[in-house]
Amino acid sequence: MNQAFVDAIEASPVIGAVKSEEGLKRCLTSEVGVIFILFGDICNIGDIVRQVKDSGKLAMVHMDLIAGLSTREISVDFIKKYTAADGIISTKPTLIKHAGELGLYTVQRFFMLDSLAFENITRQIGAAHPDVIEVLPGLMPKIIRRLTKLCTIPVIAGGLIGDREDVMAMLDAGAMAISSTNESTWFL
């Protein structure tokens, strides 16, 4: 686990998750310290990351959502070599593991669909060794509480979080932070 990354998230427990250029511009004016980049392509991802970095925020690229990137480790090499990204987000353990080996911060994203998905988390994090995990949808206080007791890796709750009450419920359940595309949460 990269303690500097964990410290940055704890210092700013609302993470801006941006899915458009317009959303990015608004998020850059907020107090969030970490931005999850959920849009772009191989032609513009460097420019998007540069805007985030120029604003003094950490830039995390969601590898699975950038058009033109493959699901192979060479895509992580591309992000490392051609952008100034601080790290990556992915559902793919091989990408997370490779990014960690390259010194990038890592967030492994999990979709909590059923008990099998829950049970699969510990196996996958054992293989990939992410810095933190993100669980979606985030509005599951009982599951977040159970997961944070089971897992030694910090947990971010994401998805469907829309207001201060949601943010506080997830933090109270044990999540170290929340990620949200809902712009009102960026300015809480």
Kindly describe this structure:
The chain is an alpha/beta fold and 188 residues long. The chain has helices at 3-11, 21-27, 45-54, 73-82, 93-101, 115-128, 141-150, 164-172, 183-186; strands at residues 14-18, 34-37, 58-62, 87-90, 105-111, 132-136, 155-158, 177-180. An eight-stranded parallel beta barrel has the order 1-2-3-4-5-6-7-8, surrounded by eight helices. Strand 5, helix 6 (115-128) and strand 6 (132-136) form a beta-alpha-beta unit. The mean pLDDT is 95.
Summary keywords:
alpha/beta; eight-stranded parallel beta barrel; 188 residues
Question: How does the SSE layout of this entry go?
Answer:
Blueprint: H1 3-11, E1 14-18, H2 21-27, E2 34-37, H3 45-54, E3 58-62, H4 73-82, E4 87-90, H5 93-101, E5 105-111, H6 115-128, E6 132-136, H7 141-150, E7 155-158, H8 164-172, E8 177-180, H9 183-186
Parallel strand pairs: 1-2, 1-8, 2-3, 3-4, 4-5, 5-6, 6-7, 7-8
Helix pairs in contact: 4-5, 5-6
